[in-house]
């Protein structure tokens, strides 16, 4: 009887959370409320006196956050390095020079813009960095006549492709799997195993972007130049910062150190940050170095402050979700297909359900879905990672609820429905080969 009541309450709360997430509700609040609800539901099934309230509070609201500390450090250092790339001028210099070289051929220039965007965001992260680069690249695409309906998806899809090897986003998704005990003992963590899949996944998505550009090449060639951005700034000559050309490799340094030298993300990001300051001449004077160090750190941490709070609360939610779902593992196991190929194909076919924070988006209702799969204990951690992360990660490229996508459509005055119409087919088609790569290289 108690189990039936718990089941009904779980279903009702799950449906409520899905609706709340898909309507754009604040996820930090949603995760916290759901944690409390599911913890209370779990307590219904515990015989009185078996577990003290103090133990439940410690296990749910203390230990998961304390265990997550090392990951928070990676996020902070990753965000800081991304801000350093922007503030030292490397990101904008790459953007200006590349676009200038390709302006004689609009299609090649558009492809170059896509590749440069991807390069920058392998390390840069966040809406602040997207704005800093977008205000450079969108006017360039406007001047060569790239239609807005093409320019915006090119920019956002290229950022999304870079996210496959961006350590800041990786550790965020890995947070959903911290509390899972995989049958094979493996843990989802940053390193060569993941990058052996992440790099090919990035390449596949960028090929999708290039094909998208080539499909619309006629519209690009025949496009009418236009101006974007602040009317007061239009037409003014823009100067890009002078930095050594060889510093353009800095965005990929952390990934190279992790892949080639097997470095942990923390020292890799820290060394890359110091070298960027050094190579761009910001360590010539102690006073100047301290100023830019403090400035970039303050901006970076400010950008990710709300994200860190949400990730900590997410740890509470994941622990409560996995714990309460284990009570129903005997019921769930016969229902969920155990054929990994069938599940992988099904999740690719249903990938658009990740849109609007739906049931296949981990930063939405998908956070509850993955808890159900974890409760069965049937699948290894890397399979479950790919199952939800592939549709979630590709969806970042074309979902209007993603912060930098919202900014891009607003800045370019593009209708959201047009953005979705152009971008969703590209990301949806990319999920199939990327999931195939995951099957070959990841799980």
Automatic annotation (TrEMBL):
TM spans (from-to): 31-50, 71-91, 111-138, 150-174, 194-215, 259-280, 292-314, 335-356, 362-379, 384-404, 424-442
Keyword Transport: no
Keywords associated with the record: Membrane, Transmembrane, Transmembrane helix
Name under which the protein is recorded: Gluconate:proton symporter
